């Protein structure tokens, strides 16, 4: 019988990519995987524990339970006390204590409370970046102070010893790598993010329209997953940018990588980012990253890739669009110094395997292609 129980209430995007990346290194008999599709995130968080409590078999030999922070682990253990004997590991792709909302009154505190309770129920709490870990721990006290007449103390002190950072493993070895050749085309800018408010599409639109106004030549691809409705700022962007907008919307995997391999600059305008898989993938494909000097980005990228204001971003892009040789110099410097190995599945997957197998009595397996 399987000794590892894997639970993912939101089996899509980076959550699915993580499991798919490291589970291929396990024998199928070693683990049982229980998932829900990546829809209606809020309901997955609310009811996932109840659902899995009814679907996970009661006759088992599980030694390790691995899940993401979407699951309310405290609820699951309460409903299924037989799982309490497992070594319980929780992976944080994001945290709800620091998740942006348009209006503070819109914040549903229950999701943050779920994650705090999950951490208190876990033996090992793993974050995908130092920024994610610190922003979670730093916000516990202020978040709980929302309660009008209850003051809880020392929760950070209880949780911090259980916390660690293990970067999300990106399978660079499966991604095509660019061979740089002389290129006289206009600079190709890429924005590969979800079309939602926390990725700040309005900021991108303002930047592109300002560049257009300054009459510099460029091409742009606005990629990523659409929200249920197109952001208002994107509705007429094609009419305004005309032939400069060469891709607009979601692409197949092959088309996506072909576009990245043709790109020159990958831009983030995010107001929220705990890691940024799309930025690292695009960077690996040869796109020079440009990101805000905040969130997780200073942890990953050098100062030369970071901007503090919209004017700084526009100036960087304007200078590169006007002077291709200047851009090529800056891109060459970046690739001479950036260490992709820190974020590679080759380096990180074995750490996931060791962590998950540590209490199962299993032996390390060969890592297929990693």
UniProtKB/TrEMBL annotation:
Matches recorded under Gene3D superfamilies: Glycogen Phosphorylase B
Alphabetical list of InterPro entries matching this protein: Glyco_trans_1, GT-like_domain_containing_1, QTMAN_N
Catalysed reactions, semicolon-separated: queuosine(34) in tRNA(Asp) + GDP-alpha-D-mannose = O-4''-alpha-D-mannosylqueuosine(34) in tRNA(Asp) + GDP + H(+)
Domain tRNA-queuosine alpha-mannosyltransferase N-terminal: 3-170
Domain annotation Glycosyl transferase family: ranges: 179-300
Keywords recorded for this protein, A-Z: Glycosyltransferase, Transferase
EC identifiers of the protein: 2.4.1.110
PANTHER family hit by this protein: GLYCOSYLTRANSFERASE-LIKE 1 (PTHR13615), GLYCOSYLTRANSFERASE-LIKE DOMAIN-CONTAINING PROTEIN 1 (PTHR13615:SF3)
Similarity remark: Belongs to the glycosyltransferase group 1 family. Glycosyltransferase 4 subfamily.
Protein name: tRNA-queuosine alpha-mannosyltransferase
Lineage: Eukaryota, Metazoa, Ecdysozoa, Arthropoda, Hexapoda
